[in-house]
Amino acid sequence: MLFEIGRTTVAGRAALTVRGELDLATAPQLAAAAEELMSTSPDGFVIDLSPTQFLDSSGARTLMVLARSAREAGVELHVLVPRGNRPVRLPIDLLDLGTAVPVVAAASEIGTSVAREDSGT
Description:
This protein is α/β, with parallel strands linked by helices and 121 residues long. It has one domain (10-110): STAS domain (Transcription Regulator spoIIAA, 2-Layer Sandwich). The chain contains three helices and six strands; from the N terminus they run E-E-H-E-E-H-E-H-E. It has helices at residues 27-38, 57-73, 86-94; strands spanning 4-10, 13-22, 44-48, 52-55, 76-80, 103-104. Strands 1, 2, 3, 4, 5 and 6 form a six-stranded mixed beta sheet that branches. Helix 1 packs parallel to helix 2 (57-73).
């Protein structure tokens, strides 16, 4: 499976769009790309998993670590995963990742209040 991280823009913010499988072999690449982006001192950025086809526990852990790093750096991070992307949404929902990572289902949710669809409200 081809893996690629592209620099894009989502909802007017810098974004890293992940294509392929986010797993043990590829998660370090996302971590490095996100750390590099954070080093440029953005106010916020998005990790777009819309085209991602698979997420394992290593990928989920990387998202948690990145969310913590972003909070500590004062950078607002959102992870975009549409509800229709079942291969990625399922592990996020099963792991209740939305409690530790700011997961949104649509770009329109970025920049809105803290109450997200993912919190069950």
